[in-house]
Amino acid sequence: MKLFSLDERLTLCASLVRNGARLADIGSDHAYLPVWLLKNGKISFAIASDINEKPLQSGRRTAEKYGADNIEFRLGAGLSTVTAEDRVTDAVIAGMGGEVIASIIRDSELSKQLDLILQPMTRSKELVGFLYENGFEITEQRALTAKGKCYTAMKARYTGKKTAVSEAFKIMGKLDLTDAESVKYIEKQIRNLENMSRADHSLKALVEELRSLIGYEN
To answer: Could you give the angle at which helices 53-65 and 32-39 cross, rounded to 10 degrees?
Structure first.
């Protein structure tokens, strides 16, 4: 049976997973990401975890349909479904609000031992701030536009060094300013801030700083 293709957002997440990784996919839903990675030989083992049973049932059907072995389905919240004995190396936490992703990381000591692939649907700025304030560092970040929406995904790792970062950095993170998709993502954030600055004038300096950093012209 021909394997399905991942959508652009999940493809972005997949690109940040290391070859040969043992993966935990948190909030796995239909398990498309771990099944795709397993069938393409990029990972050796996967845990597909979700807080609800219904998505896990969908995931099991996906794995069975495409003959994906070495995948375990576990019911539970966040990284509580993963133990040190699983020898997981990479965890994907995607498709949630940035504040939810932050709470999952905060609630698990295991998060300090993993490469974290994070894809916030909202509140990316708050997530970036949380990471640096709690001893994590973004090692890689990318962006894309799909179906008219801008997304970013980042890889983070625990260093133990707590760092205060600027408001501009919380928005830009480690995005490559020579990459067109990254610039497009930042331009979208600038437009959002411009709308908000009509009611909150304190944001105008941040808008101007971001515009200057990317050479943005309205």
So the answer is: 20
Measured CA to CA in angstroms, residue 54 lies from 37, 101, 133 at distances of 22, 21, 35
Within a 10 A sphere around the Cβ of 151, how many other Cβ atoms? 22
Please report, for residues 50, 121, 123, the alpha-carbon distance to residue 29 in angstroms, rounded to integers and kept in the order given: 7, 15, 21
Tokens of 34: 């771990």
Residues 25 and 38: their CA atoms lie apart, in Å, by: 12
* Residue 147: strand pairing partners: none
Q: Six-digit token pair at 50?
A: 């979700």
Q: Per the structure block, which two tokens stand in for 88? A: 């997981």
Structure tokens that stand for 167 in this block: 């408001």
- Tens of pLDDT, residue by residue over 22-73, are 999 999 989 999 999 999 999 999 999 999 999 999 999 999 999 999 999 9
Would the CA dihedral through 193, 205, 156, 16 be positive or negative?
positive
Measured distance CA(167)–CA(205) in Å, rounded: 10
Is residue 69 within 8 A of residue 94, CB to CB? The reply is no
Burial of 7 from C-beta contacts in 10 A (0-12 / 13-18 / 19+):
exposed
Residue 161, burial from CB neighbour count under 10 angstroms (0-12, 13-18, 19+): exposed
Q: What is the mean pLDDT of the chain?
A: 94
- Nearest partner of 27 among 88, 95, 114, judged by Cα: 95
Closest to 185 measured CA to CA, from 153, 209, 208, 137 = 153
